[in-house]
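Ticket 4471: requesting a sanity check on a complex prediction with nickel (II) ion. Repro inputs:
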Amino acid sequence: MIFETHAHYDDEAFDDDRDLLLSTMQENDIGWIVNVGASLKSTAASIRLAEKYPFVYAAAGVHPSETAELNEENFAQLRVHCLHEKVVAVGEIGLDYYWDEPDHEIQKLWFARQLELARAVNKPVIIHSRDAAKDTYDLLTAHRAEEIGGVIHCFSYSAEMAQAYVKMGFYIGVGGVVTFKNGKKLKEVVEAVPIDRILLETDSPYLAPEPNRGRRNSSLNIPYIAQQIAGIRGMSYEEVVSATQQNAARLYLSEKGRREGE
Ligand code: NI
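Returned structure tokens:
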């Protein structure tokens, strides 16, 4: 079955049919879903979904664009969330320089704090990095992220950069962009990195793959992504689903996976 490693079912885009949609996942071969927090509020909502559905897991973290909400008091609360038994990662955390706000120094400060939080709770990280290749890599290197492990979600940088992250013990998150006509760079990444380092993800409700580009995304679209990866690598669809499922289980569901970068 498919392991969906990145979705946001707490998003208001799913307010009308969230439970109906989630109840159809397993019959459609979606075996596991990580619902990723992007703020304190969505972290709490992700955990509620994980408590309700056995096949849903949560990630707890504050997205770089939301870091202005953080302070010592609610950071302590975030730490408590991270210790929840169904929280499998700290994320999504990172740097987003596409937007000027919050100030880059604030983003860097809370990225570093959340990296150290992941180390303290012994869980991998889910990294969001946009237009911030150098600072992200430098910060992860400075914090010895190879000891923490994780995934660069919605990977948007070069094949060389992807290989540097593989060397760091990280996984590469591949979603709908790989099906886009202008997704050439990501196709090169998929060709360049070992299959045992690729994770399937949607970022639902965003980034729906072709042929559903522009519509609301859901994990039910993952087969289009897996099919595309299979075509690029000359593998079968089943081999891609199986390899990426094992990768995700290694990273999120095994104790060993959390420290394999060491
Ligand atoms: Ni996301």
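Notes from triage: The domain at 2-252 is CATH 3.20.20.140 (TIM Barrel). Leaving this open until the requester confirms.
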